[in-house]
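Hi, here's the filled form for the chain we discussed.

Project: internal
Contact: R.S.
Residues: 487
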Amino acid sequence: MYRARSGVLCDHSVLQWYKSRQKTPPGPIGLPFLGYLPFLGKEPHKTFWNMRKKYGDILSVYLGPNYTVVLNEYNVAKEVLSHPGSLDRAPDIFKHIGDAGFAAQNGERWIEQRRFTMSAAKDLGLGKDYWEVTMMEELSNLIQKLKELKGRPFDISEDLLSSLNASILSLLIGRRLGKDEVDKLHLSAEFADAALAKTGPSNPTSLVPGLRKFCEIFKIAGHDKARKAILQFSSFLKEQIKRHKTTELLRDIPDFINTYLGKLSELSKTNNKDHAFSETMLEGNLALLFLGASDTIYSSLGMLLRIMCKYKDIQKKVHAELMEVLGKDGLARYEEKDKVPYTFAVLMEGQRYGSNVPLSTTRKANQDIPVNGYIIPKGSEITVNLWGLHHDRAYWDEPEEFRPERFLTDGGTRLIMNNPSYAPFSIGRRNCPGSTIAWMEILYYFSEIIKKFEISTPPGVEPEFEFISGLVTRLAPQPLCFKERNI
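And the returned structure, exactly as it came back:
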């Protein structure tokens, strides 16, 4: 009798387990330990998009040992990422760069650090004179170099990245790097490459335990050099924090380091120990702000300049609008973007068309999440196919075409800012915190370059769109011609 009841209970448990498995999103079976990683190809976002035909808008795969749910459709992604159960960041994606500030935090620590960091960035000059002056100083140096080339073919990649990096670093550390600190600009570029180009929600070294360390030790695929760059950039940030604490001239500069140190000093005078403020967290937040305002902007601008070579008619329309509205000396400001709707629509379409972050950084479900009749189990990792959202024919007519008019209404005079299935900075409360900074800097650089130069590929050469994969994808370098306009 006892054995019979035990058998019934066992059968019932198996049935319950089977039913629970039936509720999870469908997906392919991968290999032991590696999961579906060997089958993703060079463009995992397109692989996931093609899998939609068989498995639907929401599918599941094992990426290494991680059970991962991929969201392939806008409404599904919006529902899941707006759920409180998806607010945690997956623990391993930024592990290789140490404590990545509030991006690596969850719960109250994340809320506390993100809120302070974004408030401080806004107070320090986001959209104010200091930020604008700093940015324009760096941009003017880049423009001068382009003028000196007199239209000769030139690969702008390194100089553009250095200009952007110098701009954001000056805001964070309170000073422009000196002429004897060019090596720090090279280091910052190497750090961004190590942090973003060699990571991602489908990158094996981000997913398979011990694989990154193995590659570092045996010097495989440049991971040893990446590790060295990460450690050196960390030392650079530590030195900047130390200088602010010990150098009289730096103590009163309104920059992010002093703002954070001021908060630490304020907390030290109280009995409040229930917080995550520390110099280690400061270093992580500095690194995070730098990454958010460096590689993604660089990638976006590189794509836009290449697109302008392909679509000459669009380049002419942008130039005409900028000159008519702003004239020779006027600046395109983010808060006044409605004055140049066509230009800003080009930027928005560039983010959709290029989708330079094709797969969102991963979240981790801290509870079961119901969606579309399925259950995303607690502990699952979650990523959104942002490239898929931006190329979904249910929302975008002929998505392979570059059409700024998608973001315009009223005869092209007014911007459409809230398009469905448009998420260049992800969705929900854990979306990219640097979206406003990104739009500002992209608009500044793009508009000033277009006003002053006609951009093209060398005679007889077509624009190339070969991508270098990573968490943030980049275009492979190609020389372009910047012919100074007569204005």
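Let me know if anything looks off before we file it.
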